[in-house]
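At this stage, I needed to go through a protein sequence along with its fold in token form, as given directly below:
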Amino acid sequence: MFQTFAFCGLCCCCLVGVFADPDEVKSVSVTEGDSVTLNTRLTEIQKDDQILWKFGPNRSLIAKISRETGVFNTYDGPDEKFRNRLELDHQTGSLTITNINTTDAGLYEVTIKISRSEHKYRFDVSLSNGVFADADEVKSVSVTEGDSVTLNTSLTEIQKDDQILWKFGQNRSLIAKISRETGVFNTYDGPDEKFRNRLELNNQTGSLTITNINTTDAGLYEVTIKISRSEDKYRFNVSLSNDCTCCCHDTEALTRLVISAVVGVASVFIVVYDITSRKGEK
């Protein structure tokens, strides 16, 4: 009986840290010169958590977090390619790579060690040219809820007399404005203040980043770029993808709950079986 119980417990414990698809690689496309954030899916790092970010076929360590020992480090990586371009979110452990270039394309891996379990997520980062084929084209952008997304102007640098306007939704509500000549670099909260504290402008390219994306952010975004006497308009249709990757802590808590329930039921069954067997022997 004891052996049966131990086997049941061992099988249940093996469930911790198992993913729906451990081989899944999330594709991330970004325009050269912009920033990209790779997310851990954590809401908050706990005291005993450890997070390791690695890059490339040699899995070079580029960032490490250990709250218990006070470590929040980024590393320059192979050939110091990431020098001064990596940023860690101290709350979630997410990694931001700034000023992306072609050599940054490739496989990124994050290992999250929580208590006795270990989770791994991988991201395949590629560079898009960010250029629209024609003025009527609507570029589709898919993003996971809670992540950030950058909508690109395709400019390399804003000139003195350029003006950039970002608008959102059917009513084309103004959500950002840039005019280098008058020193204007403003973001606005938008309808019902939905974008409050969630919009960021790239002061060099005019690209717009929306952080902490939610379902109400889906829709049509339009940027108008006025250069001298010409005017260009580009549109982006932002939609939310269904990312079934859950928060690691929530997954672990749920798994432990299931394990406890299974072990509890198994224990009751074994006790009842043992009592019944003894009565049968008498």
